[in-house]
User: Fold these one by one.
Assistant:
Number 1:
Amino acid sequence: MIDDNKILILKVRIIKMNDQMFNIILLLIPVIGAVITGVLVPYVKTKISAAQMDEITEWVTKAVQAAEVLFDAPKSGDKKREYVINFIDKMFNSRKKIITKDQIRILLEAARKQMNNE
């Protein structure tokens, strides 16, 4: 049978191990918080939902059509492009950044290509 001293020693070891685990957990909480704040939150904020993307694509197509009417002079492609990019940027990014200018350029070129194919 185990004597009382051995039981007491085992209890002390268990308490020390629990303290160590508690300290490790306390150290991990800020690290996990930093990862969530630094990586996960910006990632979620930059994701555009399918409905938003459909709406943006529709407005890019309309803006390209409007630019074709507004800037009908030859060699006015740069003015048309800047008009569409600025219009979509102001429309969707006025409160917070939803879509980047590079993403707008890609949608603009896709809309322009689609219009030329029709």
Number 2:
Amino acid sequence: MPTTIQPDLAFILFLPAFCIVGTLYCCYPRKPRHALRWIADLLVLVLAAGASVAAMRWGFRVASSVGGALWKQVLATLLAFAFFFGIVGAAAVVRARLLRRAVDLRARAW
């Protein structure tokens, strides 16, 4: 395997899983749908993907050679997953609270 692709292998292999989770994050909840929400969702996904790649490359560089070449890929994969799902999960919680607050404000206005 070319050494230039090894640091990015974890992200390439798990890109379909990240795409599925990103699609689910953007699609649910179905309402409200407005431009600001789409922009915020896309920014969260770009941030999560960027942080995932950065963490994966860092993990690949700092992994010790105690476990062999496989340990570098394992650590890189764990960090990529942790950062991606951590950021998307935190953003989902924040978005749920903001949407709940917006619904409460509309209910009070009536």
Number 3:
Amino acid sequence: MQDLETVRAALLAKPGAEETYPFDQVTLVAKVGGKMFALLATTASPVQLSLKVDPDYGEVLRDTYPAIQPGYYLNKRHWVTLTLDGSLEPALIQELIDESYRLVVRGLPRAARAQLAALDPGTAKGDN
């Protein structure tokens, strides 16, 4: 999961995920319920992906992996930017995508979580 299209597909496979370009024509923002859970720099080489994280886990990730840095132009405590240079395991990248999505879904209003639950029953609890 190092190339742009694979990462994009993983983001958009999440229930209710939508692709937007609110900042410019090259920064893909993946949203659920109108809230962003990922930013993907579509012209960066290597690919750069920013994801929401639990602050304590984000600190551990930054200390452990050189390819994971504080979120670029984002709240450095709650976001990390992954440089997909081949040094990160695909399973870790997918885990971080899933966790970012869960964190955002948990913060959505009950009605929005109910709409997502209609798409995928595990989503309302943030299990997806």
